[in-house]
Amino acid sequence: MITESMPKTRACRMEERRPDTIAPRFCHPERLQHENGPLRFVDLFAGIGGFHLAFDQAGAVCVFAADNDPSARKTYEANFAGTDPDLFTEERFAGDVRTIDPTDLPDFDILCAGFPCQPFSIIGHRKGFEDTRGTLFFDIARIIEAKQPAAFFLENVQGLLSHDGGATFATMKSVIEEDLGYSLHYKIVRACDFGLPQLRPRLFMVGFRDPDTPFEFPEPQALTTTMSDVLRGKCQRDIGRTVLVGGRGHQLGHSRNWDGYLVDGQLHRLTVTEAAAMQGFPPDFRFPVSTTQAMKQLGNAIAVAPAEATARALVKALRARQKATTPVTCPSRTTRHVSATPKTNIAAAERNYS
Predict the structure, then answer these.
(1) What are the φ/ψ torsions at residue 105 (nearest 5 degrees)?
(2) Which of 60-64, 97-101, 119-123 shows the lowest mean pLDDT across its residues?
(3) 311 touches 303 (CB < 8 A)
(4) What is the structure's pLDDT at 164?
(5) How far is CA 62 from CA 18, 27, 280, 321, in A?
(6) What is the 3-state secondary structure (H, E, C) of the chain?
(7) Which residue has the higher pLDDT, 167 or 310?
(8) Looking at beta carbons, which pairs linking 236-239 to residues 24 or more positions away fall under 8 Å?
(9) Are strands 201-208 and 151-157 parallel, antiparallel or unpaired?
(10) pLDDT of amino acid 322
(11) Comparing C-alpha atoms, which of 325, 307, 110 is closest to residue 209?
(12) What is the per-residue pLDDT for 22?
């Protein structure tokens, strides 16, 4: 863990990395001269840090994160406290997003959020906005409205597009484009189209405060790793099934089996290390939790490779379109826990689905 031993004069970003890791290296956010420094992002519903790794590789710096799951928080801190200690010592790692007062947030350029997918997943009950987790989208909108970041990157299951006959996504689209005034680009992106041996189709949503900002999702890339590589033996399929939150242990051939594979003619169950590789997490990524919790966290995580490719495209679009000059302003210590009420019709929209 790198904390007090890190020199204060070290450059904002350190290029020295072991070849087998993509661990980020940050300097203190208040010291950034933003005109020449990296773009800043906040990591909401952070989970174990898939967005964090992706945007680090894209050249951005994390100035705030939030997640309310104690186990996920433990994994997130275990992997980022050494390289970004201020998130955890300067009250920049929050819990419940619903309690965040936007005035307590540092200034940032990009909002990232893999908000809860269970209300929209075909595996869940698909209650959408009737599920309290579904209404968390409106908390994202509340923060965007207050802080006006240059861009956002949201992720959810592909079922969000068709949920309630498309009405749920239509509501979100209306909030983003009409109420907030941002553009919205969206696409179903698969992990296997960006080098990872896993299907994992997910809905990526990218938007910009300046609606005229040109943006194209990255082109698919060749598969660089197969399941045989991950499982270290001959697997019957090159691309694995989507890593899920639960439901391990089904028999081979069962419609819900996702963790069992035939390898060299023998049944093999995915390990945490193998599932992490399928998700694109680095070999030295640590899980200081039980196997059950680690697999749950990986099932909830965003696949790093497609997220990184999209993050690079987003950063490129921002750099080409605008020059941000506002320095980072980090939050002062506060005990305030009640978020402000939105002053636009976002609040009314939220009430309609609460």
Answers:
(1) -85, 150
(2) 119-123
(3) no
(4) 82
(5) 21, 10, 19, 21
(6) CCCCCCCCCCCCCCCCCCCCCCCCCCCCHHHCCCCCCCCEEEEECCCCCHHHHHHHHCCCEEEEEECCCHHHHHHHHHHHCCCCCHHHHCCCEECCHHHCCHHHCCCCCEEEECCCCHHHCCCCCCCHHHCCCCCHHHHHHHHHHHHCCCEEEEEEECHHHHHHHHHHHHHHHHHHHHHCCCCCEEEEEEHHHECCCECCEEEEEEEECCCCCCCCCCCCECCCCCHHHHHCCCECCCCECCCCCCCCCCCCCCCCCCCEEEECCEEEECCHHHHHHHHCCCCCCCCCCCHHHHHHHHHHCCCHHHHHHHHHHHHHHHHHHCCCCCCCCCCCCCCCCCCCCCCCCHHHHHHHCC
(7) 310
(8) 236/261, 236/262, 237/261, 238/197, 239/192, 239/197, 239/198, 239/199
(9) antiparallel
(10) 62
(11) 110
(12) 31
C-alpha to C-alpha distance for 353 and 134, rounded to whole angstroms: 9
* Residue among 27, 112, 117, 235 flagged as catalytic: 117
At 86, list the tokens. 């201020």
Clarify whether 112 is annotated catalytic. Answer: no
Compute, in degrees rounded to 10, the torsion defined by CA atoms 211, 353, 135, 305.
-50
pLDDT for 5 beyond 50: no
- The amino acid sitting at 349 is A
* CATH pick for 38-218+295-332 out of 3.40.50.150, 3.30.420.40, 3.55.50.30, 1.10.486.10: 3.40.50.150
pLDDT at residue 338 above 60? no
Count of Cβ atoms closer than 10 Å to residue 14 Cβ = 15
Cα torsion 119, 125, 127, 132: sign: negative
For the chain, what are the domain ranges?
A: 38-218+295-332
Q: Which of 74, 75, 49 is nearest to 62 (CA)?
A: 49
Retrieve residue 211's tokens: 């609606």
